[in-house]
Amino acid sequence: MDIRNFFGAKKPGGSKAKNSSSSSSASKAKESASKRKSPPNQTTNGKKQKQRQVEDDAIEVKEISPTDFFADAKKETKKKSSKTATPEKKPAKPQGKPKAAPPKPKADVSSDDEPIQFIKTMTPEKKKKEVVNIDDDGSDDKDEDYEDEVQDVTPTKKKPPSSRSTTPAASSSSSPAKRARAASPKKKASPPVKKAKPSPPPPKKETIEILEATLEKDSFDVDSSRVPEFMQGLTFVFTGVLENVARDDAMDLVKMLGARVTTAVSSKTSYLVAGSVLEDGRPYTEGSKFEKALEKDVKVVLGEKKLYGLCHLYHERAKKEKGITDAPPAPSKQAASPSNPYAKKAAVSNPYAKKAPVSNPYAKKSVAVNPYAKKAGSSTNPYAKGSSSKDQSSSSNSEVATKSSNDPNQLWADRHAPTHTREILGNKEKVSKLQKWLGSWERQFNNPAAAKKTWSKPGGPWKAALLSGPPGIGKTTTATLVAQEAGRDLLEFNASDVRSKKALQNGLGDLTGSQALNFGPAAGKGKKAPPKKLRCVIMDEVDGMGAGDRSGMAELIQMIKKSKVPIICICNDRQSQKMKSLLPYCMDLRFNRPNKSTMANRIVRIAGMEGMEVERNAAEAIAESCGNDVRQVMNCLQMWAQKKRGDGSNDKLTYKGMKDRQNSINKDEILRVSLFDAAKTILEGRKGLAGASPKAELDSLYRRTDAFFVDYSFTGLLVQQNYLKVLTGQRKNVVDVPDKEQAYLERVHDAAASMSDYAVCEHEIRSGDLNWSLLPACSVLAVKTGYHAGGEDGGFLPSFPEFTAWLGKNSSKGKKQRLLDELHYHMNFKISGDTQELRQNYLPVLRQHMFSIFKDGSDAAGIISLMDEYGLSREDVFEKIDEFRMGKKVPAFSDLDSKQKAAFTREYNKGTHKSQALVAEQGGPAGRKKKGGKAEKDPADLDAIDEDGDVDQESDDDDDEAELKKLQEKFKKKGRRGAAKKGGAKKTTAKRGKK
Amino acid sequence: MLWVDKHRPSSLTALSYHGSISQRLESLAQKPESLPHLFFYGPSGSGKRTRITALLGAIFGSSANRLKLDQRTFTTPTGRTVEIHMVTSPHHVELSPGDAGNNDRFVIQDVLKELAATKNIRSSVANMDKDSQQADAAAEIKVVVLNQVDRLSKQAQAALRRTMEKYAATCRLILCCDNPSKLIAPLRSRCLGIRVPAPSITEIVGVLNAVAQKENLTLSDAFAEKLAKESNRNLRKALLMLEAAKVQAGGNQLGADQILPSTDWELYISQLAQDITNEQSPSRLMAAREKLYELLVNCIPATTILKKLTGELISSLDDSLKLEVLEWAAFYEHRIAMGSKEIFHLEAFVAKFMAIYKKYLNDMFADDF
Prior knowledge:
The structure holds two protein chains of two kinds.
Chain A: H1 2-19, H2 21-24, H3 28-45, H4 49-83, H5 103-110, H6 114-141, H7 147-158, H8 161-166, H9 168-174, H10 176-196, H11 204-214, E1 235-239, H12 247-256, E2 260-262, E3 271-274, H13 288-296, E4 299-302, H14 303-326, H15 330-339, H16 343-349, H17 351-354, H18 361-369, H19 371-377, H20 382-391, H21 395-404, H22 412-415, H23 428-439, H24 441-445, H25 448-451, E5 464-468, H26 475-485, E6 489-493, H27 501-512, H28 516-519, E7 535-539, H29 552-562, E8 567-571, E9 586-590, H30 596-609, H31 616-625, H32 630-647, H33 655-665, H34 675-683, H35 694-708, H36 715-729, H37 731-734, H38 738-766, H39 775-790, H40 806-827, H41 835-855, H42 860-870, H43 874-883, H44 898-910, H45 916-922, H46 939-954, H47 960-994
Chain B: H1 3-6, H2 19-30, E1 38-41, H3 48-60, E2 68-75, E3 81-88, E4 92-95, H4 104-117, H5 124-128, H6 133-138, E5 142-147, H7 154-166, E6 171-177, H8 185-190, E7 192-195, H9 201-214, E8 218-219, H10 221-230, H11 235-249, E9 253-254, H12 264-278, H13 282-297, H14 302-315, H15 319-338, H16 342-368
């Protein structure tokens, strides 16, 4: 406890410093001054241990100050301007936090003897202040919606409540700005640190230059780092194209190290990491981010090498600090800290102690590094618990704590569900709106005057409320809590209940109807109703009222109109057609997903209560991956916790761990890529696998076979369409080298052959026996095609995969087949061959024959008699036969001279054509006898058929295209008739003209 | 009317070749009540349908030639309405169930069953115009001619099995197709198979001469033989080519040096063969794929394409290669029969040919040194 007190005491200082955020933003001037002064202090301090510590602190301060400049220069400058007045004192205080140091504490610290006093004096008050600070921090941080929440959350996140209160660091951790400052010192400081001790640190500027100029590394290995999250508190922004590393990877790196990555440069940004060129090729100096960085005085790190260097710097420093504090085994560390009253402070402000790695606080890092924190963190630790209830007396907190001790098998999502409206994440204004509405409901609606009004005006007031929004964000919880807090009894209907009209009347009618008066005395009576008697109906999942709930929605609306009880409806999709009728009757409250930082706060806190340690970045990543669905996040957390318990490992949930695990989680990721990407993956075969380990090869093989299943009915077709393109690209390497070219062509065949195998397999699946067990074989064969196409080293598909031509070709083939069938049907009487014979042998000859007659001088009669003999109609000749031409040289009937065609048409229309097929199709004399066909149209219909008979007849055809074709023909026919008439007219006029 | 149809024989006795088949059919026609199910198969242009028509005429007399178009509409279990055309006479029905595509099964199950299950009413009036006794007996049975049974799906063929036995009392089936191997064995075993082989060259020349005579055409024997060969012993094709040649020539003289007419798609395939022989590369293969697609879209069956293409390719090959190419052609023809996406197999064949041919060229090239 003593230790804690110490911490507490120190913190106070820190917290105070924080409190006066302005003060925290100690001006550079101050800091610089402090540095200068500090050296002397140190020298004097040599005598007493405590004093030494003080010295350390002082040193830290010095060091920090440079760092501060480094990372937080901008902030500092601004803040400084406000508080420049107390420059000298700061140096001492800074330990609490560079930024934090308020004037007074600093003064104390600066003098050799004073530190102790300072601590003592501060202790009592500080705690309180701290708390306050924390709150502030929290609110700064992210929790917009909920102040109380913030308080609770911030501390928990970092660590157990107790540790928080005691640790100055905790407070700092919560606020990004503070963190940034705290952390930043180190980085700069590290190089200078050594020098700094003996002598005052070099001017900040120099340090900066050194850092930027000297540190270049080729890589930074996260795994080798022994200090977790040592860059915590820093904020990075990335711009431009990094040379050898993908931007995402670089971002992951710094995130793994505990830093934050944001997209825009702001005053909180610590570093701007820039590639030398932007994505569009301009130099990075022209980018808006760079300009902003200049403006904000953000340090620019150019290129990934410098970034790695920066990491190394921070890491070195962190290690050094760690080395000092816990170079001895963990126990010694503990021992050390107690003995040193300042230690805790140190943790925060002292680069060494704090190792600032984490920047923070204690709370966070703490868990791993700081023995205290750890204890505090685990729920099993009595300490933590006790402290939490004591220190953080916030009601919600204690509630949560008690809750957490419940049934271990309970779902976390339930166990940690909010028990008070204050605890609801996000959507604060909607919650309060709902509360107000519910509060004024009785007055507004449950009085005699209101009874006769109808309530569906666009502007309200509404008798019902509709909460809408995605799942897992607390809509039901909100409704329940609001109603409970309003002292109402709840009646909930959800999709598990039958909600047909009848069921609603039975279940709700009594409640909402006249009898409701019994339960809820009207407000008009002026009596104070016992809260229990008020009721509230929650209709959950109203958009789920489906076919089974016949006229349930209509009944619900009726009920809302008459109801004497407030009805809260909840749905996910308010755009749904089903909801349309309900919308006008409800107050519309649209719930949004809480943002990820808000959620991260809660995640860290809850995890802490469950004895899990979760990095903040990891928490955000979880929130993101769950689509900001609070419930799902809880389920994920619980699963992970379970897993941890299962394998006995106790490591915390780190961002890096998340990333690593994602690779295994993402096993099915390939199923989420687009069809085209999947085809590309398959087609490029062993690309990038040269020299890879057997495992990597196997993984790749699995990935490719999985890719096939993105859409198993299309992937194969896409592969077939594109594999030759992959092969084409490789030809230049082999051409003119007979052996290679030979092998290359063999590969082409291998690829084609395995596609052929694929087609056979697929046929077995699709037709006949539906042998779906062959589907995996299809997948492997498609991959085999890709393998052959790519070769041992994999191929490259130069462009976006083409969509398969097979579908289109197959469809036009089907269309032509139908035309052919029609022709065959028309000619069936006279020819003996089947459709194939018709196509291959008759049609070319028939066409030639007709053309020869045309050539002879438009002997229309000859052709017409031929057509009549074969039962062909004009359309058969001019359109269907024309379809079957191959090669450009083959003449087409449609290319005939229009005059000739017109003349022919006139001639053709003169006569009657009595071929049975034509008569049946086009309608003939009404008396024509038809037998046997149920489908035969009766004579009355036949007239109609003459106009649109084709469509009529074919409308049941499976293929739309045929219909379309028919229609087109119809129109063409009409058009041509028109044209023919015109042509005819022209002809006559021309003749006249000649005459 | 084209000559091929104009001069088609309509009775068994008028058939000019395959005398033994004609005799057997004649004897079958004598006892229509004991007529078995028949299965005519053989290459196209050999006279299967001509023989079927003649057989029907022999059994039922002239009334078998009173043809009428008819159509049936039926609804599949999935709610699709399918229409099937048929040619009917008082005694027989002729249809191509394969026209219904994937729904051919329902044609067999619904339409055919209905046809087969109903008995022809033996009206004395109907018998009046038939004097022979045999027509009397024949009137009791109904004949259903199924064309292009090789297009039937397996399920449809399976559906046919039982129907054939169950309604044998009232109904005889005559199946007709090119390739008997497409018919499942149980069906083949239920039928009397009648193979109608392609006529020999001399038989074709004989027919050609007969037709030329009737059309007052002077046809040189050499050209007639050329036509017979070029037509692959397909009589229909030979006759059509004869007429086309006559149109080309413009006169009534067809000398030995007359150019053989060829059809558009054949020209197209020879062009394709040339492309493949000229260059072997994936880009050429892609171009070939386009041409193959074009052929398929134009309703040229994949096997026909493969056959024709192989013929074209082989013609210019060294003997040592012919065997190999043929082997692969057979392999991929089998593939085509097994699968439904013909282009895949055709493409693979072309790819294989390219590899073989390139190897051949390279070897030759190497030998030269």
